[in-house]
């Protein structure tokens, strides 16, 4: 399976372009409105010799690529032709004052029901880079996902050498069984869900799995002596991934659609929900070899994981005059990369510590130097009781759960949170009393407490407009320490500090980086450690924050923030669109 150049929007979606003159600049600037249509439909997809009726967008797996430029407006009509309820989240888009388009089921909208449609309407403000879109309801994102590429404004160069070509690479999964049936069964039994049967690169499992042939392998064909921009996206449900290309060095230049100070690495780590842009400089001459591009999980928890390795192939194009020679690509040796051990927390820590914002005049790091509100959130697994007359498969006959500050989040069902907030109808839907710190402090990373039961509720955090926030997220040893990639909707945040053990409020802030910390939308809370982030609550609405390990989110590791309107007209949430779905 070959690859194609990026910049023009693909034919996978219906695209129309109209031009609108903006009046916010002294001189008129040209903005573009791009129209896409997403038909959510069933499509037979075959991998590993197994054909499964799969929920797709436009019959494609993965789904269509969206391409836009910074400043563009996107109108994406999603039509639901399947029996499942649907919502589509545009992961990493700030959605300034357009929370109705965030696409989070029961948080910012009721889902799109069978036979219904909804137009996601938003403008890309101050962002450029690699993001992605995915379903945000149940486990449907296992097949409903695709890349969302934001090019710089016309005439604006990258802050790194211009690549010869740009290639999106999306890590995903293949399940022989229906993922919806898998999570539904797990939620009923209280045990861990069955794992996927393969990882995929751009939808293909590659040559290392049984019953997976060359035609089910992603092949990246490159020319010698060129530079390629690889746009990496981890769309896997439950695992962080190590990634490496044999005998090649990668230069990291961006994470989560924010430029970083470039650095070289043989291997990188990417968590579910995260994106990473790297430059690949090919060898000056044809190397007479092929190279595996391989990924396998970084695992810290005690649960069941898919420990397999996925591979694509990096293949150098042969000059026409040598095609008939002995350099036939079919006979070339294939080199494999040396990936770290699956539990290599030392590598993970070393890699993330290298990430730094550019912090330049053109791309400043506007880190809040002070904070108005501080929060301390424990993120951990836990348990809930088994229903009477049932046998459960969780610890000691309980059901697995997960929580923030020991509150396992309960999703509303009759009204989404944003509507409840906007129309002042929160009674019976949510309460604004989420605890700012654990109600019962304990030795978070020491010997875990005997009682692993969690409480539950739909509790939210309320912030006045423009509040500067410092948030400490602390892993715990309850049911085993584990890395948790936390994603915040509606904002980017600065990762000002991280460490192992229990956060020390007296000593650790002295080591915070307030100059050039990495800015992103999804960060891994270290296994047995903590991470500190800061952000400015300048976007009114209701914003979800959750672990991007899908099973942890299913178990309740999530919370929502309410950011109130500001005083000025441009600081207020816009009214809901007329076609907003009803529950």
From TrEMBL:
Origin species: Salix udensis
Residues annotated as signal peptide: none
EC class: oxidoreductase
Protein name: Laccase
Domain Plastocyanin-like, residue spans: 43-153, 166-317, 440-565
Catalytic activity entry: 4 hydroquinone + O2 = 4 benzosemiquinone + 2 H2O
UniProt keyword annotations, A-Z: Apoplast, Copper, Glycoprotein, Lignin degradation, Metal-binding, Oxidoreductase, Repeat, Secreted
Subcellular location: Secreted, Extracellular space, Apoplast
């Amino acid at each position: 399976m070959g690859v194609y150049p990026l910049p023009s929007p693909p034919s996978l979606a219906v695209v129309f372009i109209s031009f609108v003159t903006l009046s916010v600049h002294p001189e008129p600037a040209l903005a573009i409105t791009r129209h896409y249509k997403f038909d959510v439909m069933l499509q037979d997809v075959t991998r590993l010799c197994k054909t499964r009726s799969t929920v797709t967008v436009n019959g494609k797996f993965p789904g269509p690529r969206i391409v836009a430029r910074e400043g563009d407006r996107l109108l994406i009509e999603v039509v639901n032709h399947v029996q499942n309820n649907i919502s589509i989240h545009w992961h990493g888009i700030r959605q300034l004052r357009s929370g109705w388009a965030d696409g989070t089921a029961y948080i910012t909208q009721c889902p799109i029901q069978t036979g219904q449609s909804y137009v996601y309407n938003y403008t890309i403000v101050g962002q450029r880079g690699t993001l992605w879109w995915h379903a945000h309801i149940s486990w449907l994102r296992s097949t409903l996902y695709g890349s969302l590429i934001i090019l710089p404004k016309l005439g604006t160069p990258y802050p790194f050498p211009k690549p010869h070509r740009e290639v999106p690479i999306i890590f995903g999964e293949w399940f022989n069984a229906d993922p919806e049936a898998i999570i539904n069964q797990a939620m009923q039994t209280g045990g861990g869900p069955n794992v996927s049967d393969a990882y995929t690169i751009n939808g293909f499992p590659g040559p290392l799995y049984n019953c997976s042939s060359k035609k089910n392998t992603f092949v990246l064909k490159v020319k010698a002596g060129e530079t390629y921009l690889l746009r990496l996206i981890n769309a896997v449900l439950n695992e962080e991934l190590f990634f490496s290309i044999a005998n090649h060095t990668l230069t990291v230049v961006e994470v989560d659609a924010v430029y970083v100070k470039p650095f070289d690495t043989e291997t990188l780590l990417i968590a579910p929900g995260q994106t990473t842009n790297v430059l690949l400089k090919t060898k000056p001459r044809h190397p007479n070899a092929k190279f595996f591009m391989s990924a396998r999980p970084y695992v810290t928890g005690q649960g069941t994981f898919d420990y397999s390795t996925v591979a694509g192939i990096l293949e150098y194009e042969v000059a026409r005059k040598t095609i008939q020679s002995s350099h036939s690509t079919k006979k070339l040796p294939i080199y494999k990369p040396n990936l770290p051990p699956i539990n290599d927390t030392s590598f993970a820590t070393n890699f993330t510590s290298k990430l730094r914002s550019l912090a330049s005049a053109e791309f400043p790091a506007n880190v809040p130097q002070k904070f108005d509100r501080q929060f301390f959130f424990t993120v951990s697994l836990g348990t809930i009781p088994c229903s009477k007359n049932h046998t459960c498969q969780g610890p000691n006959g309980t059901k697995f759960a997960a929580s923030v500050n020991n509150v396992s989040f309960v999703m509303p069902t009759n009204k989404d949170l944003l509507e409840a907030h906007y129309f002042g109808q929160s009674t019976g839907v949510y309460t604004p009393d989420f605890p700012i710190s654990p109600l019962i402090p304990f030795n978070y990373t020491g010997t875990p407490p005997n009682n692993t039961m969690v409480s539950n509720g739909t509790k939210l955090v309320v912030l006045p407009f423009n509040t500067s926030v410092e948030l400490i997220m602390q892993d715990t040893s309850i049911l085993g320490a584990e890395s948790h990639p936390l994603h915040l909707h509606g904002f980017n945040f600065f990762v000002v500090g991280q460490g192992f053990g229990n956060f020390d409020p007296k000593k650790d802030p002295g080591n915070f980086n307030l100059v050039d910390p990495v800015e992103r939308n999804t960060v891994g809370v270290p296994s047995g450690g903590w991470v500190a982030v800061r952000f400015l609550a300048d976007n009114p609405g209701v914003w979800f924050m959750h672990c991007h390990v899908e099973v942890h989110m299913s178990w309740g590791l999530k919370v929502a923030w309410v950011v109130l309107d500001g005083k000025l007209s441009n600081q207020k949430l816009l009214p809901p669109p007329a076609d907003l779905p009803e529950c």
